[in-house]
């Protein structure tokens, strides 16, 4: 016997018949009748006397009614507990380092005081949403896992950047990436096209940006990063080979949870407002030395 059987039994008992219980249960009278008959077979005794005026509980039915009400109170308590834990737990948001940094700087657009906390999970490696390592992810490809729901929210453009007070040229040194950051598409592209000019490296994207801002070389950055930093300017045109899509991803089973749904909608709204920045349509001053330094 499961809770759904008892729930239907309580509805018919309280309302006195199948027709009256239709609205409360959302089932047809015929379906309710079959479910009640199946329940009686399982418990081995009749629970109702069928009358022209409706259903009247038997002695056994009245005994079960008292027990079923206790179960109902327990289930209500469980639902309240579940709602409480869902409203209190944090929303884990997974994205790459630069995107996480951008979202953190726009936290007021994503989170309001009194709401469940947002936990930022920044990583170069993809965090497994399918196994609940994160609730929401921002990815550069459409999710292939059938357990995940995805929404395309824009594109991300890349370019080479240098310090705003220098003129980069073909002899300007290049700042590369090492360690975990060296596996990203932009790091591999930089190594393949400008590897012979790399004289400095960093395993932190933030360190690489700071080296570039100090005028020690050029490096590849997402346009929403480079074009937002007054210390930097573009040293190339957009690098078409690195342009990627941006997808907002969540688990099908969790995406309708109020806190997660609210955060998804706010991220989508923020990214829509910032579409030109991410697409590279708001450049700082571009170096006059050519499309690529």
Question: What does this protein look like?
Answer:
Helix content is 42%, strand content 21%. With 293 residues, it is of the alpha/beta class. The chain folds into three domains: 3-88, Winged helix-like DNA-binding domain superfamily/Winged helix DNA-binding domain (Arc Repressor Mutant, subunit A); 91-154 and 245-273, D-Maltodextrin-Binding Protein, domain 2 (3-Layer(aba) Sandwich), CATH 3.40.190; 158-242, D-Maltodextrin-Binding Protein, domain 2. Strand 1 (48-51) and strand 2 (54-57) form a beta hairpin. Helix 1 crosses helix 3. The longest helix is centred in the N-terminal third of the chain and has 30 residues, at 59-88. The model is unreliable at 285-293 (pLDDT under 50).
Share of helical residues = 40-55%
Cα gyration radius (Å) = 30 Å
User: Order of strands side by side in the largest beta sheet?
Assistant: 4-3-5-12-6
The number of helices is 11
Going by helix content, strand content and strand pairing, the class is: alpha/beta
* The CATH homologous superfamily of the largest domain: Periplasmic binding protein-like II
What CATH architecture label of the largest domain applies? 3-Layer(aba) Sandwich
Order of helices and strands: HHHEEHEHHEEEEEHEHEHEEHH
Mean pLDDT: 88
Number of strands: 12
Distance between the termini: 73 Å
CATH classification, class level of the largest domain: Alpha Beta
Number of domains: 3
Q: What summary fits the major beta sheet?
A: 5 strands, mixed
Flag low-confidence runs: 285-293
Strand content: 15-25%
Which term fits the overall shape? rod-shaped
The name CATH uses for the topology of the largest domain is D-Maltodextrin-Binding Protein, domain 2
């Amino acid at each position: 016997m499961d809770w759904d059987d008892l729930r239907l039994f309580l509805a018919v008992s309280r309302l006195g018949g199948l027709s009256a219980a239709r609205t409360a249960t959302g089932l047809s009278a015929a379906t309710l009748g079959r479910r009640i008959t199946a329940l009686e077979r399982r418990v081995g005794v009749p629970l109702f006397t069928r009358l022209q005026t409706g259903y009247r509980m038997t002695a056994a039915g009245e005994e079960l009614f008292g027990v079923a009400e206790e179960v109902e109170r327990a289930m209500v308590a469980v639902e309240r507990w579940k709602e409480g834990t869902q409203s209190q737990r944090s929303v884990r948001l997974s994205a790459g380092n630069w995107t996480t940094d951008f979202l953190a700087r726009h936290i007021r657009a994503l989170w309001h005081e009194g709401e469940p906390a947002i936990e930022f999970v920044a990583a170069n490696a993809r965090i497994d949403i399918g196994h609940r390592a994160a609730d929401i992810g921002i990815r550069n490809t459409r999710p292939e896992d059938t357990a995940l729901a995805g929404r395309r929210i824009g594109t991300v453009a890349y370019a080479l950047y240098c310090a705003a007070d220098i003129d980069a040229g073909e002899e300007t040194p290049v700042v590369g990436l090492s360690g975990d950051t060296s596996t990203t598409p932009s790091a591999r592209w930089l190594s393949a096209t400008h590897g012979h000019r790399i004289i400095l490296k960093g395993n932190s994207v933030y360190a690489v940006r700071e080296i570039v801002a100090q005028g020690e070389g050029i490096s590849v950055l997402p346009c929403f990063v480079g074009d937002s930093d007054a210390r930097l300017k573009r040293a190339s045109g957009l690098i078409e080979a690195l342009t990627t899509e941006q997808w907002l991803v969540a688990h099908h089973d969790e995406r309708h949870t109020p806190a997660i749904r609210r955060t998804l909608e706010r991220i989508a709204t923020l990214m829509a407002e910032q579409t030109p920045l991410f697409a590279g349509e708001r450049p700082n001053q571009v170096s006059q030395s050519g499309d690529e330094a």
